[in-house]
Design brief:
The complex is a heterodimer of chains A (about 300) and B (about 270).
Chain A: E1 3-14, E2 17-28, E3 32-36, H1 43-50, E4 58-63, E5 66-67, H2 70-74, E6 76-79, H3 91-102, H4 109-115, H5 131-143, E7 149-153, H6 161-176, E8 180-185, H7 188-194, E9 197-202, E10 205-211, H8 212-215, E11 221-226, H9 231-236, E12 240-245, E13 251-255, H10 261-270, E14 275-281, H11 285-295
Parallel strand pairs in A: 3-8, 3-9, 6-7, 7-8
Antiparallel strand pairs in A: 1-2, 1-4, 4-5, 9-10, 11-13, 11-14, 12-13
Helix pairs in contact in A: 4-5
Chain B: H1 2-12, H2 16-45, H3 65-94, H4 97-104, H5 108-141, H6 147-151, H7 156-178, H8 181-201, H9 214-219, H10 240-262
Helix pairs in contact in B: 1-5, 2-3, 2-5, 3-5, 3-7, 3-8, 5-7, 5-10, 7-8, 7-10
Classes of the chains: A alpha/beta (about 300), B mainly alpha (about 270).
């Protein structure tokens, strides 16, 4: 598997504060890589180091197996924290500056503005834009060089629900073209919806990294209720790893590996018991995330 | 190189403050020398006296005197261009656009280079404007217009270019160190005083060290010319020593500018 980005023991210390500490990350090509973490966990500092605006205290990073350089940054579409543009320039003029820096022609400017839905306001000054429009312009700017890698830091911050949905489908569209996306977010739901891989940072350290699809795997939990007391039945059931009462006579059942609610239902029926409530609990990233954070 | 200059110009050409300041700068640079003679005529008509001398008889605009007179007056006007450079530089910090420039693929050295190229261009245009005004006003008022007189002391024009270049580089450096427009402009205005105070505090011949301080070195290129009309000795040429000091200052000012952002976190 090709690697787009790898960091090795990357660190940034501000005096005694370890903003990022010995971070080892690997971003595979074509993935949508979510960097999750609470506020102040070092997400933006990490991205800042990868984009040369923050000087690392130690460690190194490679883009496409080469140390970072300005030539590589020209081929990366990146937005960090809040959108930054010249307030007195229009969207088009701002993108012209970006195009000159990235050494790409201005031909793509109308196209990317259309892609983010800013064409109508393209000649208005940036300072007259709403936060949502500013956010869209920064995504347009990141798309300008037709990048192989995009770095998006909280891209849906401050957007209305429609805007959030638009940006998410845009990200999924871009990923479908085979581009790699690194997405920092504290919105778990967002990462679960768009990402293929994710890493969790806390207080500057990497505490988990894996695939989003693996989150849903593993033992599943089923909540079950019947008119009779289920406890003795569940205790002796071979499909069940653990069963604990929750409320109203319901039991939360941890199923054995590979077993699901279907198997439990069939088992109960064979025991002449009819369930009045049967519900599979999907394991959300949120739960997983909180579990990971609590363990750390 | 051309691309880096284009980047800086792309930031400026739709910026109203830029056009206002550049307009004021060049208007004053052109209008003061052009209206000078009319102003003297008006003074004379009011019966003003310049010591024992008739104002109208002073060869202010005659070749070759005009070059030193003109560049001496013009050097005060470059202060406006200095303020412009300070504003353009500190803007990049207050808008955080320097950070976005780096993210987009500009190195810190590229950033400094693009600003230096703009300053170089502005200095060049300023010097050309002064050259043009000198030739025009000299041709109108000077009794001698032979080549020999015209271009004697023309060396003050390239000296003015060097002076403007270094003063604007100094302004940029100050803006990069301070990073805030208001404070930088105030410091730009009061800094000369600081050198004067140091000079006055140091004993004689040690105080000559101030000749090597940036502001003194820069302004020293063109000496005060008007006392010659009161029959005093003046230095009516550009000193080689001053040229050398100023040539050394070019890499120093650019180097310090680069150093201030080279290892810094841009946030």
């Amino acid at each position: 598997m090709e690697t787009v980005l790898s960091t090795h023991q990357l660190s940034k210390h501000y005096g005694r504060l370890k903003a990022v500490d010995k971070l080892d990350l690997t971003v595979p090509k074509g993935s949508v890589f979510g960097i999750l973490g609470p506020n102040g966990s070092g997400k933006t500092t990490t991205l800042g180091m990868l984009l040369d605006v923050i000087q690392p205290t130690g460690g190194s990073y490679n883009w496409f197996d080469k140390p970072g350089s300005k030539e590589q940054r020209k081929k990366i579409g990146a937005i960090l924290e809040t959108p930054i543009f010249y307030p007195y320039l229009s969207a088009v003029k701002n993108l012209e500056v970006v195009a000159l820096i990235k050494e790409v022609g201005p031909q793509r400017i109308p196209e990317v503005l259309k892609q983010v839905g800013l064409s109508e306001r393209q000649n208005d000054k940036y300072r007259t834009y709403s936060l949502g429009m500013k956010q869209r312009l920064s995504i347009a700017s990141a798309l300008l060089c037709d990048p192989d890698v995009m770095i998006l830091d909280e891209p849906t911050n401050g957007l209305d629900p429609q805007g959030i949905a638009d940006i998410r489908s845009l990200i999924i569209d871009i990923a479908r073209q085979g581009k790699t996306i690194v997405l920092a977010s504290h919105l778990l739901d967002e990462v679960q919806k768009v990402c293929t891989d994710f890493a969790v940072l806390n207080k500057g350290s990497l505490i988990y990294t894996g695939k989003v699809e693996d989150v849903a795997k593993g033992e599943s939990k089923v909540v079950v209720k019947a008119e009779v007391n289920l406890e003795p039945v569940l205790q002796k059931c071979p499909l069940v790893v653990d069963a604990k009462p929750v409320n109203n006579g319901r039991f939360e059942v941890s199923m054995a590996e590979g077993k699901t609610a279907i198997d439990l239902n069939r088992f109960l029926f064979d025991q002449k018991i009819v369930a009045s409530h049967l519900e599979t609990q999907t394991k959300s990233l949120e739960k997983q995330f909180l579990e990971i954070l609590n363990q750390a | 190189m051309i691309r880096l200059l284009k980047i800086d110009l792309a930031k400026l050409l739709s910026y109203r403050t830029f056009w206002v300041l550049i307009g004021i700068y060049f208007s004053i640079l052109i209008l003061i020398p052009i209206s000078g003679m009319e102003f003297l005529k008006w003074l004379a008509s009011k019966g003003a006296q310049f010591g024992e001398i008739d104002i109208m008889k002073i060869p202010l605009y005659h070749f070759p005197d005009i070059w030193q007179n003109l560049t001496y007056v013009a050097k005060f006007i470059t202060l406006i261009a200095g303020i412009l450079v300070v504003i353009l530089t500190t803007n990049e910090f207050s808008y955080k656009t320097i950070r976005q420039n780096v993210i987009d693929g500009l190195s810190r050295a590229d950033f400094i280079t693009s600003k230096v190229l703009f300053i170089l261009g502005l200095s060049l245009v300023s010097a050309l404007v002064v050259l043009f005004i000198g030739l025009l006003m000299g041709s109108i008022y000077s009794p001698q217009t032979e080549m020999h007189y015209m271009f004697q002391h023309i060396g003050f024009v390239p000296a003015f270019f060097l002076m403007t270049l270094n003063f604007l580089l100094f302004s940029m450096m100050l803006a990069l160190v301070i990073k805030r427009a208001g404070l930088s402009i105030v410091l730009l205005l009061v800094y000369p005083l600081f050198e004067v105070i140091i000079r006055s505090m140091l004993p004689d011949p040690v105080d000559n060290v101030v000749n090597f301080f940036p502001f003194w070195a820069i302004t020293n290129l063109v000496d005060f010319p008007f006392s010659r009309y009161a029959f005093q000795e003046i230095r009516d040429s550009v000193a080689i020593k001053d040229i050398i000091i100023n040539l050394v200052y070019i890499p120093v000012l650019i180097g310090v500018s680069y150093k201030t952002i080279a290892q810094k976190n841009l946030s």
